[in-house]
Records
---
Amino acid sequence: MSNVRQAILDASAAHPAPAGVHYTYGTAGFRMNADLLDPVMYRVGLLATLRSKALGGKVIGVMVTASHNPVRDNGVKLVDPMGEMLKQSWEGYATQLANAQTHEEVADLYFSIAQECEIDLDQSASVVVGRDTRPSGEALVASLIDGLTASGAIVTDLGLKTTPQLHFVTRCLNDPSYGTPTEEGYYQKISDAYKTLVAGLEPLKITVDCAHGVGAPKLRDLTTYLGDALDVTVVNGDVEHGILNYHVGADFVKVNVKQPEGFDLAPNGIYCSFDGDADRIVFYYADEAGAFHLLDGDRITALVGAFIIETVRQAGLDLQVGVVQTAYANGNSTHYLRDSLQVPVAFTQTGVKHLHHKAEEYDIGVYFEANGHGTVIFSTAARNTIRNATHGDAKALHILRSLINVINETVGDAISDMLVVLGVLAHRQWALADWDALYKDLPSRLVKVVVGNRHAFKTINADTQLEEPADLQARIDAEVAKVSRGRSFVRPSGTEDVVRVYAEAETREECDTLAYTVAGLVFDLAGGVGERPAEFL
Ligand code: G16
């Protein structure tokens, strides 16, 4: 028996799989109750080694986080060399390994994947690891490192990082032109670029809800680099007491359309919320009458998309800007983008991995999910055009050149996106109310339904229609037809054990009727679990 096989078997013995659990590599990797994840971590370690070997020894990233999920959960996802999400064809290998029943089967799979992908097992492998503030993180990283070590990878444990910082460092290790591969390199790059972007403009003031997560210490670190260029107040930064994401953070604010707990909103101030691993952001403010106004990912697309289009035009550059959204995008945001901005809008399934790939088709691709997860990416040609332009408006070129370096192109990044939005607002000299006035949202509602088996739900057409369970789509269509400008769809979450129902319509009343009727249909016809929620129709 080879030494590696023996090492994999020996180490695997310390990470037995619980009986009767089925694991799936979902929207953003494996994600579930942390108590069930130990064997998964070990096996993800093996897979990360294989992935690095398969790519000639390039550095692979592994992030241990469950992002917006409750603190009892954890998760793990792999990051490919350029900082993008793991190649989709490898997700199947991850799922196979995670579900192997015996240690022998784990070892067999390691070698069969190597064979199938024609991997040279003598190739060296290199992996960087990061984690968020969850109490389960340290032990899970230790299990991951067991898998990496047993399979011979060189491991660098970066400790506490935001998810986007881990993506950034992974990219820089493989592509030094992108930046210095350290947390300090990240702060230096984006803070220098922000200072250049807003030089000469009035510094803005922002209060940031960090969801009691890793974003809090990291944002505090960034402020020392930003100096006077931005006045940041960090709130909800208690990472010690197990209250991560509890009634705070981007997901709470987006889903409930209300402010997080922990602080009050002064009229017309600038506020935003990160999620637990700081890869999502939403903004909000209270008006003079105290009414709450949410500015979500669709709004970020509109603000940033319009600014980039205008600046590219002013710079006299011939670059195509395109936008990517998902079915969760508010219908009126799509109208604004297509009709007012005249920008091409493409749709993909939920999950930044899908949006990112689609956005790569444009010179400049702007993608944000409604939940506030997204970024802007520039093709190499666009980057060179912007860098090398000698004619055109100097100010516009200066803005584009600074903006590129504020943006974390590898993945949605709450810290970087915050600076991008503030940079645009500073140039526009806009308050959040001005941004809010770009278009009016259609009333929308998101409802979670707990069912016995969410994997029984299969979607088609970029998540907008259900193929299975049979007949449910026809019932949904019949309800949608009853309201004006109605739209509703149902899809299984890839990060929580629920089915999500989205609805929008012309009026709040019609929207809520549609949302709760469809939620009731799902509950009644597709195996709802527990007590039927009172609001379901
Ligand atoms: C992850 C993904 C996002 C996705 C979200 C919700 O975000 O990265 O692209 O929108 O999950 O996915 P689902 O509706 O399938 O649960 P995060 O911030 O939780 O990593």
---
Amino acid sequence: MKKETQHKREGFSSSIGVIAAVLGSAVGLGNIWKFPYVTGANGGAAFILVYLICVALVGLPVMLSEHLIGRHTKANAVGAFKALQPRRPWFLVGGAGVLSAFLIMAFYTSVAGWVYAYIFKAAGGALLTAKPEDTTLVFNKLVSGVGEPLFWQVFVLLVTGSIIMAGVTKGIERVTKLLMPLLFLLLVIIDIRSLTLSGAGAGLSFLFKPDFSKITVSVILAALGLAFFKLSVGMGTMITYGSYVDKNENLPKMAIKVALADTLVSLMAGIAVFPAVFAFGFTPDQGPKLLFVIIPAVFNSMPFGRVFMVLFFVLTAIAATGAMLSLLEVPIAFLTEQYQWTRRKATLLTILGIGLLGSTATLSNSIFATVTVFGKTFFDFYDFATSNVLLPLGGIFIALFVGWQWGYVKVKQELSNQGQLANDGLARVYLFLVKYIVPIAIAVVLFTGLK
Ligand code: TRP
């Protein structure tokens, strides 16, 4: 522990700043892009129900665990485990997290690139059509290109890299604090429009009337994977962010607030998308293009649609960027603290690595369209391997670590801010979850779902 904590660490400067940053990590393309399309592909309401259970019983405890580990050790994902268990291989959990950050960023920057590109397409009028068939053409043309999507991916990496280089409090906190409320407001506006389209009711039933026959093991695995991806847990992001959090912060309260707010944003994105999907005569299982073909059509059926559409993609780009900052922060904190690299060197080499790996994801619809790994394109493989395998695996080990290795008394101390918070009951529930429910539930779902 000594070595990692020697140099001065920055931290988030206020309580509201902490929530904003943690929420800024959680809210991103996961809510706006992934939640609707995965819900659409997995049958709607029943999937959402399973998802909510995964968030409450698995995602939330893992998030809290990461915050506890991070705040206690004040170290990066690898250093934190080394500090607590210097002679055991737990640090490999953090190491796997650093790897996951690269794999997630590989496809995340690709999708973020589409979003950035859509800001300009929306502004330039290329998306001024209420017909989903036409918006599909625009989307297909973008993603099956080579130079254009690569350009945007590089652009995304440069933007995110520059913010990261500016440092933790200055960069991350400032950007995210301002913009979450604005995104929320805009979602309210789109929801209203989507709900008032004629034929919107079918979309609402799709979202809220569960058909339990739709639940299969692979649906459950998808819900579990989405919960991890959504809450940014299972790979040390929340350890890293937790390490910037003040000793007096009420961590359980914060985790609950973040999970609730994040889920609300996802549901609102669902309400923006699905009524429109049905109103425009589309099917919900469009896959990753769902958001990009439906949302422009919604905007074009409202007054000032073009202005709102630009605003929507700007805010989505910002939300995606806040999430990417937290993903990047994992390898950067690791490299600067474990290897004493400068922040600048760590950032530049990390985004270079992500750019190289990420180009294979971006070109999955063109040059590499026929190249597959385990039957999936690079893009789909990075996505599946992280959300549905690596993050849940990380979750098992993080839960086992807190539940069985760290020590009951120490965990309770950190959880209660050294006894200042009276949360004994909560501690008992939490420890029961991380000892038994979380590892067993994940193991069962992973084992059966992957077969
Ligand atoms: N939660 C973010 C989203 O929904 C993505 C993300 C950020 C993430 N950091 C993460 C996912 C760490 C997994 C792990 O867009």
